[in-house]
Amino acid sequence: MTVTGGFPREDDLGPSYPTLFGITFTPTITGALVAVAGIGLAVYAATQFVSPKLSEYQEIKTRVEQKKTDLEQKEATAQRVDAIVAQVNRAKQENKDVRGLFSDQQALDTLLLDLNRVIVSTNAELLTFKPTYETSGVVADSSLGETLNNKIKRQVTAVSFQGTFNQTLQIMQAIDQLQTVLVVRDLSMELQTTDKPGEPRNVVKSTFNLHAYVPLSPEEAVAAAQAAAAQAKPEAKPN
Hints:
By secondary structure, this protein is of the alpha+beta class.
């Protein structure tokens, strides 16, 4: 028998690939496996190395933010304290300035002479200058503000004088400019007519209560504080 065909050549059989568990590892399959293995290694590396570092970074970041918040709170607290201290100092200074506006005892004692001088200089006539002791004394009625209670005293004087309108205006302006702190209360003015020769036909009679204020002396301040404390105590209930 004659065989007309021939055996295939070795080159015609194609390349040979390794086979495992019935799977032929062609270049495509091998490349895919390598890619999967690379991804797995990347995930493993991320889990073992990157994740702990990331967690550590987040913890550090959280601590830094907490420290920053604490610092900001401390700074805000310090600013509030500084503001309170400044407010207290300002209140003390304002109280000192306000008290400095009042006259001293010597100026209060010479009030009559000052007022006489003012009236005489305007050629007006002083009719009455009489202290009113019933309404004089330590200020404790908050009429000048609670901060001045039991720190200053008031001297009330009943005053009346008469003069022309211009004289009256000059006297009232001069009273306002005296060194002592003076407050005019209960002011009344009456227009009076006279026919006496050499005198103005129309004169104004002015009547008012003059309140003069002066700070308490240290001894008076202690006594006033003790009196206020005694008055503030509730009365003991009888058994």
